[in-house]
Design goal:
By secondary structure, the chain is an alpha+beta fold. It has one domain. Helix content is about 25%, strand content about 20%. The chain has helices at about 55-75, 90-105, 135-140, and strands at about 25, 30-35, 40-45, 80-85, 110-115, 120-125. A six-stranded mixed β-sheet has the order 1-2-3-4-6-5, covered by helices on one side. The longest helix is centred in the middle third of the chain and has 22 residues, at about 55-75. The chain is globular.
Length: about 140
């Protein structure tokens, strides 16, 4: 996503991984990774080796359903940009509905801003606490 130069790489464990890991397995082969910077949190959803539309939709829905929990565990908030696996525009409503359902139980003020022209989903989330790992912990402070 281009943000990799700004953050430290964290190795993904075979299980769900520690809260300080930036990658989270979504089901079996699909994964998604989040990278926090001072400006925003970038989330990238990948389908693995299966590039079919059904696999993309399945990976996207799994990641979107788990996203609020992962953000809460890591203490991430602010502007969040989700780069979903290739998705038909007709499936966007399903993604929005799945996110709205996952956010109902979350308890942290979160707004679905909408879709960018490039097909990224933008979310605005209240920062409830300092992040476990993020730009503040990685980047040196300006002098």
């Amino acid at each position: 996503m281009g943000l990799g130069l700004l953050v430290a790489a964290v190795v993904l464990s075979a299980s769900a991984g520690p809260a300080t890991s930036n990658a989270v397995p979504a089901d079996t082969l699909p994964t998604y990774a989040s990278e926090a910077t001072r400006a925003l949190v970038a989330v990238d959803v990948n389908t693995g080796s299966d590039l079919s539309n059904a696999a993309a939709l399945k990976a996207n829905l799994a990641a979107i359903r788990d996203l609020p929990r992962q953000l809460r565990l890591r203490g991430l908030g602010g502007q969040i940009v989700v780069d979903l696996a290739p998705l038909a525009k007709s499936d966007r409503r399903r993604i929005e509905a799945a996110l709205a359902s996952a956010l109902r139980d979350d308890g942290i003020d979160t707004t679905l801003v909408g879709w960018t022209p490039l097909g990224h989903l933008e979310i605005l989330r209240k920062r409830a606490r300092r992040p476990l790992v993020g730009a503040d912990a990685i980047l040196p402070r300006a002098v």
